[in-house]
Fold these 4 entries.
Entry 1:
Amino acid sequence: MNTEFNHIFIPGDLRLPVLLLLHGTGGDERDLVELGQSVSPCSAILSVRGKVLENGMPRFFRRLAEGVFDLEDLKFRTEELSAFIDEARNEYELGNARIVALGYSNGANIAASLLLSKPDALDGAVLLRAMVPFVPQTLPDLTDKKILMLSGLMDPIIPADNSTRLSEMLKDAGATMTFSMKPLGHGLTQADFSGIKNWLELTYKG
Ligand code: MLT
C-alpha cells in the first residue's frame, strides 16, 4: 500500500477540529481550502487529492458507472486514506486533535466509507451531497461521532432517497446526525456554507 497522497497541510489551533478536506470528482487538494478556512478560520487543514484518475479527473475511488462503485477499490482506497491520516497525525504532530472530514460528493462518499469501515479515523464529518458508499454487513459503533449531512432534493447525481438512506444508516449506527435535505442541486451554495459554519460553531464551541 502506498500511503503517499498529494496534499496541503495548513497549521492551526489544535483545540479546534482539524479539517480533512476531500474534494469532488475532477477536483484537487486546492478546491476546498477556501471553504475550510471560511467555515473554521482557526482550524488546521489537511487537504488531500484522490489518487484514482477517471479520464484524467482525480477521485478517491473507482466507479463502474455514475453512482455504481467498484467496492473492492473503495475498500482498498478507504484503508489507504485511513493509513495516511494516521501518518499525517504523526508527521504534523496533531497529537489527540479531533479530525473532522469535510467532503464534497466523491469526497463525501469516501468520508462516509471511512465512518462505516474505519470509524477510528475520524471524530466527525461534514458530508456534502453524499450517498451510501457501500452497505456494511454490520454497522460500526458511531456513538461518539457527530455528523452533518447537507443534501439536495434536486441533485441529479445523488438521488435524494439514497442520501436519506445514508443518514438513517449513520443514525442507526449511533452517530449524532444533523441531516438537511433542501431544494438544491449538486453544486454548493451560500446556504451550505453558512450551514457548515453554524454547525461547526455549535458542535465544537469552546
Ligand atoms: C461518486 O462517484 O462518488 C458520486 O457519484 C459523486 C461523484 O460524481 O463524484
Entry 2:
Amino acid sequence: MIGRLNHVAIAVPDLDAGIALYRDTLGAKVNEPQDEPDHGVTVVFIELPNTKIELLHPLGDNSPITGFLEKNPSGGIHHICYEVDDILAARDKLQASGARVLGGGEPKIGAHGKPVLFLHPKDFTGTLIELEQV
Ligand code: CO
C-alpha cells in the first residue's frame, strides 16, 4: 500500500541554524522557508537525490510543533511521510485494521498542496506517520 518515502520532517528550535547546517555544513539544496499558517509551521524543504527533508519550526501560538520542541529542546525527527496512490482507500484499510487516524480521519491539504493524513504514533512503532496522496 505505501510507496516511496516522500520526506522526513525534523523539528528545529532555530530555523536559521537548521538551514545553515543543511546548506553549508551538509551541502544540500535548501529551498526558501514557507509559512504554513493553516498548519502552524514554517517549513523549509531540503532536496536530496532520493527524498526530501523538511525542517519544521513553530508558527503562531497554537503550533503542533511547540510541545514537541519543549520535550526535545535540541530538535528531533517529528514524522516520516510515505506516499500512497489513494488516501481514502488507505485510510479505510488502516481504520479497518484498528489503526487510529488523527484529526477525525478527513484528509487535509498538506505542505505540498496534496491531501495528507497523520497516523497515531502508538499504532506505528512510536513514529508519527504522514500519508500523502501523490
Ligand atoms: Co510532512
Entry 3:
Amino acid sequence: MLKPTQCVHIGAVHDTVTHGANSPIFTSTATGYLDGGGIVYPRYFNTPNQRAVVEKMAALEHGEDGVIFGSGMAAISTTLFALLKSGDHAVFQSDLYGGTFRLVHTDLERFGIDFTLVDGTIAGDIERAVKPNTRMIYIETPSNPLLRIVDIREVAALARSKGILTVIDNTFASPINQNPIDLGIDIVIHSGTKYLGGHSDLCCGTLVSSKELTARVRASATHFGGTLDPHTCYLLERSLKTLALRVSKQNENAMEVARYLAGHPTVKAVYYPGLENDPGHAVARRQMSGFGGMVAFEIRGDRAASERFQRGLSLIKPAVSLGGVESMICSPARTSHSRLSERDRASIGIRDELLRLSVGIEAPQDLMADMEQAFGSV
Ligand code: PLP
C-alpha cells in the first residue's frame, strides 16, 4: 500500500455501532478486566485510539511498533532516559531543536550521562566522538533551524558496526519525505505537534521502532507517564489522513519560495536542502523523497531589520512552532533557541537575523507577494 493510502486507511478502528467512516473515540479510563486480553489503560499506551495512531505511524515509518506521547519532548526525554544510564556516553548533533539541546545540557549531566556534541555534517565527526562507553548516537536531519543534512546511512552503518543505538528526530522531514528505518536507524521520533498534527492545534509526540526497542521504551514510559488522551489521538488520526497531501504541497511551495528568496537582493543566505547549491543537497537527494516545507534565511540587516520584516508581513504569521497548513515565520534566536546562551547559538551558527519559515499549503504566489511587500519595510 502506498503512503497516501496508508495515511487514510491504516489503523482505523472499526465502528461496530454505525459502521461509520471514522474511528470511534473510546473515552474510558476505567476498563473491564475479567474477560482476559490484558488491562487497557491510557498510561499503558494501549487504548484503541492510541493504537490507531501507532499503527498508522508504524506503517508510514516502516517500523514494527511504536508509542504515542503527550508531546515531542515527552517522546525524546523518555527515549533518552529509557535507554541510557549513569556512566553511559551519547553523541548528539549540535544543531538540534533548542528544547532537546537544553535537555541534553541540563538533565543528562545531572544523571551522570556523558555526552559529546558534534557537527554531524562533517564526515568522520561522529566517529571521532565515539568512546568505548558510547551507547547512543542521536541526530536530527534536516535540523532545526539551519536545515543541515546528516548522512543517515553513514551514521547508521557506523553505529551498527559498534553496537550503538541510533535515534533520529524526523520531525522536519515527516514520514512522507524520509524513512530513516530503511536506512538503518533504530528509533524514529517526531514532534507530532508539527507536520503530523498539521493544523497548529494539538500537542503530541511519536516513536516508531522495532518491537523489542519499543517495548523497552514503553516500559519506562508507563512510569514517566507522558501519555496522550483519546480526543487528541482522534484529532491526530484525522490529521494523518491528509499528511501525504499536505506535505507534498508544502514540498512544492517551499521549493518555489526558497528559489525566490535565493534570488532576492535583500536576502544574504538561504538554507534549504532542495537548492542545488545547498551543502546538504547531494545527501538529501539520496535519502529524502521530498525536501520538506521548512526554509531558513538571513536578511541583509540586523535583528531590528528582521523584526521589521516580520511585522511587515500580513499573510505569513510570525508565530512559534511549524508544520501547519498556514505559513509561519519566527526568529530562532528569540523563540526556539532563545534559552541557549549567545555563545551556544554562535557556535551552532544561529545568527540574530536568521529567520525560520514554515511554508504552508497556500498559493505560493500569495506568500511571495506578502514577502515582497514586507521586504520594502527592511
Ligand atoms: N523536535 C523538533 C525538531 C522540534 O521542532 C520540536 C518543537 O519545536 C520538538 C522536537 C519538541 O516537540 P514538542 O514541542 O511537541 O514537545
Entry 4:
Amino acid sequence: MSTHSEIKRVTTNTLQSMKQNSEKISMLTAYDYSMARIFDDAGIDVLLVGDSASNVMAGHETTLPITLDQMIYHAQSVVRAAKRCLIVVDMPFGSYQGNSKEALNSSIRIMKEAGAHAIKLEGGEEVADSIKRIISAGVPVMGHLGLTPQSIYKFGTYTVRAKEEEEAEMLLHNARVLEESGCFAIVLEKIPAALGKEVAEMVKIPVIGIGAGMHVDGQVLVMHDMLGITRNFSPRFLRRYLNLYDDIKDATARFISDVKSKDFPNEKEQY
Ligand code: KIV
C-alpha cells in the first residue's frame, strides 16, 4: 500500500533538471480541492493558483480585485488536494508593488497560511528588490513577463506583447534581471514565438509559456479554458481538450427535465 509520503514531490530542482534534460514542463491553474486532486492524480508537474481566479472563479473582468485573503483561501484548497506537484501561488495586485517589505510579508502569509511551495509575481526590474528579499527568506519565486494582466490598464489591451524591437529588448533585459535576482522559473505570456525561444535559450532557468510558442521549456493554460468551460475566449494559443460548457449545460438540462417529469428519483434511487 502506498502512502502520500512515498510520492516523490516535484520541486524547483525537478523543474531545473527537466529543462536540462529537455523534458517539457506541464502547468495548469487550479483554484479548488476537487480539480486540483484530478490534475495531481493525472500527473501535472505544477499547479498555479493563479490570480485568474478573479476572472474564472469570481467573475471579475480583470485580475485586479482579488485579495490576498482570497488567494490564500484558494491556495489552501489546492494544497489539501495535491500530493505530488509543485504548487505556486500568485501574489495578487496590491500585495507586493508597494515595497519589498510588503512583498515579503505577503509571500510569508501565502507560505505560512496556505502551505504553498512558491509564489509568482508579475514584472521585471521594478520588482527585483522584492524578489531578492522574498528569496532571502527562503521562498522560491516564479517571475512573469510579457502580457502581465495586473497591468492591463497600462497596456489598454490584451493583444500580443513585445512585437516591436524596443519592447522585446526590454523583455530580454527583464528576463536576465529575473534570473540574476534568483527566480527559479519565468512565465512568458502572449509574446512572439521567436522571442520566447530567445529567452528560453538565454536563461538557464525554466521558461513556461502561455502563448509564447513551442520552443519554451513548458506550457501553462488556465483550467477553465483548457476544459472548455469558458466561452467567447479563443486566442490562437488556446487548445481546448473538452467542451465542458456544453456538456455541463446538457447534463443540467437533463436533470431539470428528469425532476420535472418525476423520472428522478426512481424506485431504486430512494430508501
Ligand atoms: O493567473 C493566471 O492564471 C496566470 C497564468 C495565465 C499564467 O498567471
